[in-house]
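Structure (tokenized):
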């Protein structure tokens, strides 16, 4: 467990896309310089895991993250992330961390429920919905207040995280961010990467 990363109670995540790399930068709320970096050599939809690093010049390896799981620096699995999409019912995410009750993630607030719990999801041009409507997911269990993840309004995907249970592993939260960004968020920079890397990709 990375102490600098695990100490964060609230942080923002921004993303830089490229054909040969994808990088998430983690910043403590109100701070300019990133405190952690999640990086892989490959486009956002490649199967390679992200390496999470912290410390000066990001020299301290913290662990691995994929859109479905997180592992500690020694390779031990921390937990998993799953999404259950339901066309006419509210989408449901599940974050399962070893040693902690499974956290159920549900849209919170009117905008979020419209985006992930109503027929609005069937309307074309979901990119416009992301530009106009923020999405907030609350991950909770009866035994844990969990955490909240917000996809902020804007053309470019960027996220805010607020931790309510200090036991929640931040690497697993980053896996949740990667999952949402890959499968539930529109960002025009993804289309640019797709066009550059594979112009025939549908």
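Design, position by position:
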């Amino acid at each position: 467990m990375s102490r600098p990363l695990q100490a964060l109670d609230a942080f923002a995540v921004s993303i830089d896309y490229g054909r040969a790399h994808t990088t998430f930068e983690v910043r403590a709320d109100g701070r300019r310089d990133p405190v952690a970096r999640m990086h892989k050599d490959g486009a956002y939809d490649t199967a390679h895991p992200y390496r999470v690093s912290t410390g000066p010049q990001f020299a301290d390896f913290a662990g691995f993250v994929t859109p479905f799981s997180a592992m500690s620096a020694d390779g031990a699995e921390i937990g998993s992330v799953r999404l259950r999409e339901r066309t006419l019912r509210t989408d449901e995410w599940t974050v399962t961390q070893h040693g902690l009750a499974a956290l159920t993630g549900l849209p919170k607030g009117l905008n979020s429920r419209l985006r992930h719990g109503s027929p609005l999801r069937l309307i074309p041009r979901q990119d416009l919905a992301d530009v106009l409507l923020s999405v907030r997911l609350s991950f909770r269990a009866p035994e844990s207040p969990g955490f909240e993840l917000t996809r902020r309004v804007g053309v470019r995907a960027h996220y805010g995280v607020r931790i309510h249970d200090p036991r929640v592993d931040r690497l697993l939260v980053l896996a949740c961010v990667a999952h949402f960004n890959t499968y539930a968020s529109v960002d025009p920079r993804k289309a640019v990467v797709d066009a550059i890397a594979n112009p025939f990709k549908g």
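Reviewer-requested clarification: The chain has a mean pLDDT of 85. The domain at 3-196 is CATH 3.20.90 (Tubby Protein; Chain A).
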